[in-house]
Design a protein that fits this description.
Length: 203
């Protein structure tokens, strides 16, 4: 009489552990954008349950982040949450997102950036992007692309948040940086994000 009950308890406990692991993985995957592992980060995506936030004010104070491991510095808005380390760092204020990935790599080209985004679209069908273009920012050659993604539906309202992302890629000394600056649709962060990307410096 004891053994069947024990077996049933073990099965139930195993199911609970498995369910817990699944929910934990889901939570961690939505908490910060991940890197694809080859130096090209996954596309940014908004969180359906996170407030969109308003425009970054004109009098916003910026601090300078020095990444001694990845050897760069960049300005970011005071008060934003920082997560990650080394070559994969994220700054966040609700659905305002800035994601920086630095890895070994060749200088980007419009064709290579377009290929990255096409590959990302295979795993995120909501992704849409404009043709990447070469430009110069603070004396450095960069490739810029603009893409959009949509969040999962809000479980209460059913609404989805559209995130507009400026992706910049630049390289120096065998290292390539991918800087994604994401803004919810309807929010104006143009000036603040210009300040950030223009402040990026290799060290």
């Amino acid at each position: 009489m004891f053994r069947p009950k024990t077996a049933a308890a073990l099965v139930a406990a195993t199911a609970l552990v498995a369910a817990g692991c699944g929910s934990s993985k889901k939570a961690s995957s939505s908490s910060a954008p991940a890197s694809s592992g080859n130096g090209s980060p996954n596309a940014l995506s908004a969180e359906a349950q996170s407030a969109a936030t308003g425009d970054i004010p004109d009098n916003q104070v910026f601090l300078t982040f020095h990444n001694r491991t990845a050897k760069y510095s960049i300005k970011y808005p005071e008060g934003w949450t920082q997560s990650g380390s080394a070559g994969d760092v994220t700054f966040r204020d609700k659905n305002n997102l800035v994601h920086i990935v630095v890895a070994n790599g060749n200088a980007p080209s419009p064709a290579s950036v377009a290929a990255q985004l096409k590959a990302l679209k295979a795993s995120n069908p909501t992704l849409q992007f404009q043709s990447p273009q070469t430009m110069t920012i603070s004396g450095a050659k960069v490739v810029k692309a603009v893409y959009t993604t949509k969040s999962a539906p809000n479980p209460v309202t059913g609404k989805r948040v559209t995130l507009i992302v400026d992706r910049y890629e630049l390289a120096k000394g065998g290292k390539r940086a991918v800087v994604d600056l994401g803004t919810p649709k309807g929010v104006d962060n143009v000036d603040a994000y210009r300040t950030m990307i223009e402040s990026f410096k290799w060290r």
